[in-house]
Design a protein that fits this description.
By secondary structure, the protein is α+β, with helices and mostly antiparallel strands. It is built from 5 helices and 4 strands, in the order H-E-H-E-E-H-E-H-H. Strands 1-3-2-4 form a 4-stranded antiparallel β-sheet. Helix 2 packs antiparallel against helix 4. It is elongated and about 55 Å long. The N and C termini lie far apart (about 60 Å).
């Protein structure tokens, strides 16, 4: 059973094991990130527009690297937030450390760039590439 954090408890004073016991959102298991090659060309950004057009997908840049963020809850999370395959969980889950995790501070708070929609990414692209509209119009011409 998940515990409610008592007002007197400082999240930073909790051990890693205690932190998971107080976490009510199981946030670390509700998304995946995939590092991307740094987008440089208009074609690269056109692909990002396609990716962010999908449900529950965002794009962000953090510490110089670009990532695709897919918000999709792990299918093995039980009703109480525990892992239903804990003993057989994949290596990436085993190696995850919660020394500083979403319980401490939301991850997206410190991203260099964060795009939560097609519209927000397109605005950035148009600022970065002054010739974007010409490029976008050329996509409709047959090869």
């Amino acid at each position: 059973m998940r515990k409610t954090i008592p007002i007197a408890v400082d999240p930073e004073s909790l051990s890693s094991e205690e932190k998971c016991g107080y976490c009510t959102n199981t946030t670390c298991c509700t998304y995946i990130t995939q590092e991307l090659d740094t987008p440089r060309s208009m074609e690269d950004f056109d692909t990002l527009l396609w990716q962010i057009s999908h449900k529950d997908v965002q794009v962000y840049k953090d510490e110089g690297d670009w990532y695709l963020l897919v918000n999709n809850r792990c299918r093995h999370i039980l009703g109480d937030g525990r892992c239903g395959i804990y003993d057989d969980r994949p290596r990436i889950c085993r190696e995850y450390t919660n020394d500083f995790c979403e319980f401490d501070e939301p991850a997206d708070k410190n991203f260099e760039l964060y795009f939560d929609s097609y519209t927000s990414l397109l605005k950035y692209i148009k600022q970065r590439f002054k010739s974007w509209d010409r490029f976008a119009a050329s996509r409709d011409k047959p090869l």
